[in-house]
Design a protein that fits this description.
Order of helices and strands: HHEHEHHEHEHHEHEEHEHEH
CATH class: Alpha Beta
Radius of gyration: 21 Å
Bound molecules: alpha-D-galactopyranose
CATH architecture: Alpha-Beta Barrel
CATH superfamily: Glycosidases
CATH topology: TIM Barrel
Number of helices: 12
Number of strands: 9
Structural class: alpha/beta
Shape: globular
Helix content: 40-55%
Distance between the termini: 58 Å
């Protein structure tokens, strides 16, 4: 009885909200969000945490995006902190929000050298786990996570960043690699495929447009494809900047991976206003971190360029996801330089569209 009354109140509130919303949409185009301009191209996603899913940011997400990625909640160390314990709450809240609001979900990620709890690599005596034990754990982890969200998560980043940062080397010398050898990559894809045969399975990495990195990722993907490993796509993280990639680099990358019959998704897009400085940890004295008109113009140009290329390649690109909602919070405020403000997204610190936003959505008028 009590429950019924509450749901009646909710239904009336929902009806009022819907009728207001539809009035708004028929009378003003400001109701249109980023995703709506791209309906006939690809879903537009965003990386979120559970805190984003209420209040102002929840409305903002629903307006502009139709796909979600968990920024951290599904990473191995977060979702599987101890051998016999999974922490589902945050990941569930993201999947439920998406499900209730008709958004797709990209699963991120199942196997990575970072953000993995130390127990994973140790046996009961605290010694380095054997190959058999580690693969058994990887399988158990992938089965638990993938099966829990079967039918709700349509694509998984199965392996993240397995290529070495040193351009003269091939695979990263991670604990996965040290203990299992190269095999852990194919195994991770096989386990994920067995757990959910319908899910699309991706390899995800950064700097994939730099020719030396692209060649090495290509080599890995070709090996997997030739060995008939169930891999369906490559995720270009797209942690880019106003200085790179070039048009040619981006076009070549998309071409090259598609030539293997793989889908391409843009999985973690942001456009730093600083050059990529992986090793730099200190802010230089007196350095300004204001978004100057010059920097903003360069950013507009760069966003416009890459979105033109995305649209031209809509048959090959099956999703574009931004890494964080707006310039109010971006992981680039703390990386690679702690405390240096960055402005890498299409929305400003008040969640309002920046110049680059209008450039990205006004393509038909050109
Ligand atoms: C990598 C990972 C992401 C995220 C970013 C930084 O790109 O794939 O999950 O950790 O680094 O936020």
């Amino acid at each position: 009885m009590y429950r019924n009354k509450i749901s009646l109140v909710f239904s009336i509130a929902a009806l009022i909200a819907t009728s207001c919303a539809s009035k708004k949409s028929s009378s003003t185009s400001s109701h249109k969000g980023l995703k709506d301009y791209y309906r006939s191209y690809f879903p537009i996603g965003v990386a979120v945490g559970p805190k984003d899913l209420s209040g102002e940011t929840a409305d903002f997400i629903k307006k502009h995006f139709n796909s979600l990625t968990a920024e951290n909640a599904m990473k191995m160390g977060v979702i599987h902190p101890a051998e016999n314990r999974y922490a589902w709450r945050d990941a569930d809240s993201i999947v439920n929000f998406a499900h209730n609001n008709g958004l797709k979900v990209r699963g991120h990620n199942l196997c990575w050298h970072e953000q993995t709890a130390a127990w994973m690599f140790k046996d009961a005596d605290g010694k380095t786990a054997s190959r058999e034990l580690l693969l058994k754990r990887l399988k158990e982890h992938i089965f638990s996570v993938v099966k829990r969200y079967e039918g709700k998560i349509y694509v998984w980043d199965v392996v993240n960043e397995a290529i070495d940062d040193d351009s003269t080397k091939f695979l990263r010398n991670s604990q996965w690699y040290q203990i299992c050898g190269e095999d852990f990559i194919a195994k991770a894809f096989e386990y994920a495929h067995e757990a959910d045969p319908k899910a699309r399975l991706f390899y995800n990495d950064y700097n994939t447009e730099r020719p030396e990195k692209m060649e090495r990722v290509y080599r890995l993907m070709k090996k997997l494809v030739d060995a008939k490993v169930p891999v369906h796509g490559v995720g270009l993280q797209a942690h880019w900047s106003i200085y790179e990639p070039s048009e040619t680099e981006l076009r070549n990358t998309i071409e090259k991976f598609s030539s293997l019959g793989l889908e391409v998704q843009i999985t973690e897009l942001d456009m730093s206003v600083y050059p990529w400085e992986k090793e730099r940890r200190e802010r230089k004295p007196g350095e300004s971190d204001v978004l100057t008109p010059e920097l903003e113009d360069k950013q507009v140009e760069q966003y416009s360029k890459v979105f033109n290329i995305f649209r031209e390649n809509k048959e090959k690109i099956t999703s574009v996801t931004f890494w964080n909602l707006s310039d109010r919070y971006t992981w680039l405020d703390t990386y690679p330089v702690q405390g240096r403000k960055n402005y890498p997204l299409l929305f400003d610190t008040n969640l309002k569209p920046k110049k680059a936003y209008w450039e990205v959505v006004n393509f038909k008028k050109k």
